[in-house]
């Protein structure tokens, strides 16, 4: 069966990038996530409805370049979706139990057998999201659908910030529920007022009764210490398009051996490289390090410090130009650049 990948975070020609490919084939493409948000991706091959109802989807979170305007203690991703099942008419079994298959009649009439958070019936009740009283919680909520609406609510909490589609420009305050159509999302934030269990539901209770329930457990089980959070600004990015391409090339090809302001790795820390080398020298080095090492005293001195000789990176003239533009950008900032981890 053919499949494809449709990224809502991208702005690209769907006929090209989201084309269907056959089993055994691969596809690769780039896009620039121009908008912050909580975006769905999914298989876009007809019958799209059936492919999505079979679980072919996920979520991409694009953080704002400067980070979120608020600080939180906990972050969780909650994806709501529907499953439309019937026992296999051929009577096949799985793990000793009944095998369920897609019920295409139910799919067409929007009558799911299960509506769930994070892929499991009552999954977030069995494995609650854990927090502590007084903490601020940020939920990245996506309603996949494929066909029904979610009336997302947390019992006992009020969302003091809601960013529709996950973009802080789309701010609402003091919301009890957030209405999410298929492929709609929101970032919701709230403070846990007291110790207790806060029930997460789709307030369309018929949907909740099909499994779209969960808990934020703030009764004491939460760990302290270093929590993962994203209040820090996102990786700094240049504005000039050529430098942006240079940054991408650098992160793809160079960070195994180089940092920018993070100290020497297998190769030297490149912060300040445009002050110690001319553009011409850099271009010659990047085009052919071995060649320069033969004649150039500076290159030879550098090589003495590092046991490894930098392998030829097979860079085109355009890529070299992009990389040098990127070096100039970070040297103009004069600060370390946190590379992707
Ligand atoms: Cu598919």
In short:
This protein is α+β, with helices and mostly antiparallel strands and 341 residues long. Helix content is 24%, strand content 26%.
Protein model, in words:
By secondary structure, the protein is of the alpha+beta class. The chain has 3 domains: 6-62, Cupredoxins -  blue copper proteins (Immunoglobulin-like), CATH 2.60.40.420; 74-218, Immunoglobulin-like (Sandwich), CATH 2.60.40; 241-333, Cytochrome Bc1 Complex, Chain D, domain 2 (Orthogonal Bundle). The chain has 11 helices and 18 strands. Strand 13 (161-164) and strand 14 form a beta hairpin. The two termini are 35 Å apart. The model has no long low-confidence stretch (mean pLDDT 92). The site of copper (II) ion has 5 residues, from loops.
């Amino acid at each position: 069966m053919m499949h494809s990948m449709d990224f809502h975070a991208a702005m690209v020609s769907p006929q090209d990038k989201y084309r269907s490919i056959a089993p055994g084939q691969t596809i690769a493409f780039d896009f620039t996530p121009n908008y912050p948000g909580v975006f769905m991706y999914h298989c876009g091959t007809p019958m799209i409805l059936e492919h999505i109802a079979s679980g072919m989807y996920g979520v991409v979170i694009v953080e704002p370049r400067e980070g979120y305007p608020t600080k939180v203690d906990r972050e969780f991703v909650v994806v709501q979706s529907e499953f439309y099942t019937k026992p296999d008419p051929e009577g096949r079994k799985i793990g000793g139990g009944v095998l369920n298959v897609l019920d295409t009649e139910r799919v067409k009439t929007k009558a799911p057998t299960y509506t769930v958070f994070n892929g499991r019936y009552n999954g977030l009740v069995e494995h609650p999201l854990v927090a502590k009283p007084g903490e601020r919680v940020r939920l990245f909520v996506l309603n996949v659908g494929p066909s029904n609406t979610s009336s997302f609510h947390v019992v006992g909490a009020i969302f003091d910030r809601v960013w529709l589609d996950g973009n802080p420009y789309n701010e609402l305050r003091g919301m009890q529920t957030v209405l999410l159509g298929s492929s709609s999302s929101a970032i919701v934030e709230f403070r846990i007022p007291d110790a207790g269990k806060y029930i997460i539901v789709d307030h369309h209770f018929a949907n909740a009764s099909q499994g779209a329930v969960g808990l934020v457990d703030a009764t004491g089980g939460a760990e302290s210490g270093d929590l993962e959070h994203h209040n820090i600004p996102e990786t700094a990015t240049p504005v000039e398009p050529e430098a942006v391409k240079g940054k991408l090339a650098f992160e793809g090809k160079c960070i195994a051996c180089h940092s920018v302001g993070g100290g020497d790795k297998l190769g030297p820390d490149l912060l300040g490289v445009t002050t110690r080398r001319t553009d011409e020298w850099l271009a010659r080095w990047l085009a052919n390090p071995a060649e320069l090492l033969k004649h150039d005293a500076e290159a030879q001195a550098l090589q003495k410090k590092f046991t490894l000789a930098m392998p030829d990176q097979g860079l085109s003239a355009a890529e070299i130009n992009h990389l040098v533009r990127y070096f100039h950008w970070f040297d103009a900032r004069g600060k370390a650049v946190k590379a992707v981890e």
